UniProtKB/TrEMBL annotation:
Principal subcellular localization: cytoplasm
Compartment(s) where it occurs, according to its Swiss-Prot or TrEMBL record: Cytoplasm
Ranges of residues in domain Arginyl tRNA synthetase N-terminal: 7-86
Any one GO MF annotation of this record: ATP binding
Organism ancestry: Bacteria, Pseudomonadati, Myxococcota, Myxococcia, Myxococcales
Keyword Protein biosynthesis: yes
Keywords in alphabetical order: Aminoacyl-tRNA synthetase, ATP-binding, Cytoplasm, Ligase, Nucleotide-binding, Protein biosynthesis
GO terms under biological process: arginyl-tRNA aminoacylation
UniProt-listed NCBIfam families: argS
Membrane-spanning ranges: none
Xref: PANTHER family: ARGININE--TRNA LIGASE, MITOCHONDRIAL-RELATED, ARGINYL-TRNA SYNTHETASE
Similarity-based family: Belongs to the class-I aminoacyl-tRNA synthetase family.
E.C. no: 6.1.1.19
Protein name in the entry: Arginine--tRNA ligase
């Protein structure tokens, strides 16, 4: 397992402190924290030592600081704290060279998860329905989490677990018989219209609703005619889904659905019957285990014999463990389903499955305030279209003003529009609700995807104007406060990637990229105020080369992070 530059210096500081105090380094490492930037990079508080040493914390800190000698670190006492600052050399060169050597793999650690497998269940739309805007969070979060684990060397088995079984399909089938047009059987938009009409009719007509239920029962019984129609409509939906996923740059290792477990659920129910047991309740079969007051039981079969989500998820969990022998199995599904997954995982544990604790629900909050110029949004495609349309207007304005050159304005607008929507979601803490705002997400300023894409394009433009990436540079020339601050932001990506994967929290990477972009902006702006601080400084080729090397490392860091988030990285904006 490779160690980041930050982690290596932190460990060295902790080891030196431990040696001076005569205690194991493992006891000290958790106490080494980031310092206030004005006072250093690492900090160790001496308050816990005061009682044992019978000294004031500032005195302990002063004595420790005089004792410690750590290569690459300047150690000083600041009141009750022992602080360490990275010396400009070799630190600056280690970061820049490390970034440039790794390229787009910067932040990755192929050894971290070597030999481990994670299964990730995400996106999961229902067939005969469009991928709705409400799928945005499970889709983008799941895709990014999969990217994070791949970057850390895990074998990722991403599963798009389609809702392709259940009464809703019965509605499509009987609805098509009544409202459908045979020549539009393979038209996804027509299937959606049929479903909407059928769902409305079922709410008004109990007999029609019963016909839908009966069709689903025929499916569960394996009726050839019903299964033929189901398969035709499923394939039509898949074609529509794949087009949208391709537009977003998302691919799955597996696209499979609840139908995979048709015919396998009785075996799971029989297994549950042995342990913990099943019982009948109002004609339905439920898991026989204690429930909290007011908690609904885990239903395995309805009184008409049809199965439910819990039955299929239990069968799927067993199947996935048998197929992949996973170290983790993640379900990126809305917070609303928290009870469902608690009960599914608890049932697996009651069944005696030793891997039940490896199953994890990764919940997320809701999005409020989404609407478009055309009204309330249903399809994710519509959101991407509008994002592109809004951005394209700005792209064309910049071309007309001579501020932008591009061979394909339409393709650039697509990239920026996608970046706006993806980052607009992933910058938020996963568990939080947020309110969608078109002006905010598509802005080139503030905490937005286009702002980060622009920062990346600005770096690329500076490199072009500077004659390209320098092959050699002198890191000792990067002494400006703005340069050292920027290097410290670049340093953070590897540890942030690990933390984001461990916490299933892409927003950690998103926020770091904002910090990198802001630090580069301050650096760039400093050159506008002071000619000697310009990146493309005149009359000093050595300084110019060093600053271009730092710009190159910044560009790579932004590109690596944006790629993990699933955001395109245009080189000209």
């Amino acid at each position: 397992m490779s160690t980041s530059v930050y982690s290596r210096y932190r460990a060295a500081f902790a080891q030196a402190l431990a040696g001076a105090l005569g205690v194991p380094a493992a006891d000290i490492e958790p106490q080494v924290k980031p310092a206030e930037p004005a006072h250093g990079d690492l900090s160790f508080a001496t308050f816990p030592l005061a009682k044992a040493q019978k000294k004031a914390p500032p005195a302990i800190a002063a004595q420790l600081a005089q004792t410690l000698q750590v290569p690459g670190l300047e150690v000083k006492a600041v009141g009750p704290y022992v602080n360490a600052r990275f010396l400009p050399l070799p630190f600056t060169q280690e970061i820049i060279d490390g970034v440039r050597k790794a390229g787009l793999a910067y932040g990755s650690d192929a050894e971290d998860g070597k030999g481990k497998t994670v299964v990730i269940d995400y996106s999961s739309p229902n067939i005969a329905k469009p991928i709705g805007f409400h799928h945005i969070r499970t889709t983008f979060l799941g895709h990014c989490i999969a990217n994070l684990y791949r970057a850390l060397g895990w074998r990722v088995e991403g599963i798009n677990y389609l809702g392709d079984w259940g009464k809703q399909f019965g509605l499509v089938a009987v609805g098509f018989q009544e409202f459908g047009k045979e020549e539009l059987r393979e038209d996804m938009a027509h299937l959606v219209q049929v479903y909407v009409q059928a769902n409305k009719r079922a709410g008004e007509d109990p007999a029609f609703d019963e016909k839908a239920r009966e069709f689903f029962r025929r499916m569960e019984a394996g009726d050839p005619e019903a299964m033929k129609l189901w398969n035709q409509f499923r394939e039509t939906s898949l074609k529509g889904f794949k087009r949208v996923y391709a537009r977003m740059g998302i691919d799955f290792e597996h696209i499979e659905g609840e139908s995979r477990y048709q015919g396998k659920m009785d075996a799971v129910i029989d297994q549950i019957a042995k342990k913990p047991g099943v019982k009948e309740s109002q004609g339905a079969i439920i898991v026989d285990m204690p429930y909290a007051d007011g908690e609904p039981p885990v239903l395995l079969k309805k009184n008409d014999g049809s199965t439910l989500y819990a039955t299929r998820d239990l069968a799927a969990a067993e199947d996935r463990h048998a197929r992949f022998n996973f170290d983790k199995s993640l379900y990126v599904v809305a917070q609303d389903q928290a009870l469902h997954f608690r009960q599914v995982f608890r049932t697996l544990k009651e069944m005696g499955q030793p891997w039940a604790d490896k199953c994890v629900h990764v919940p997320f909050g809701r999005i409020h305030g989404m609407s478009t110029r055309k009204g309330q949004v249903v399809e994710l495609d519509q959101v991407l279209d509008e994002a592109k349309e809004r951005v394209l207007q700005r792209v064309k304005e910049n071309i007309a003003q001579g501020n932008l050159e591009t061979a394909d304005a339409d393709a650039l607008a697509e990239q920026i529009g996608l970046g706006a929507i993806v980052f607009g979601d992933l910058k938020h803490n996963r568990a939080s609700d947020y309110t969608f705002d078109w002006d905010e997400v598509t802005s080139l300023e503030g905490h937005t995807g286009p702002y980060l894409q622009y920062a990346h394009a600005r770096c690329a433009n500076v490199l072009r104007r500077g004659g390209g990436v320098p092959t050699a540079y002198d890191p000792a020339l990067l002494t400006l406060p703005e340069e050292q601050a920027l290097v410290r932001e670049l340093m953070r990506l590897p540890d942030t990637v690990k933390a984001a994967a461990e916490q299933y929290e892409p927003s950690l990477v998103a926020r770091l990229l904002l910090d990198v972009a802001a630090a580069y902006s301050r650096y760039y702006t400093a050159g506008n105020k002071d000619r000697d601080k310009r990146i493309l400084v005149e009359g000093n080729d050595a300084v110019r080369a060093a600053r271009l090397a730092l710009t190159d490392a910044t560009r790579i860091t932004l590109a690596a992070g944006l790629t993990l988030l699933g955001i395109p990285t245009p080189e000209n904006m």
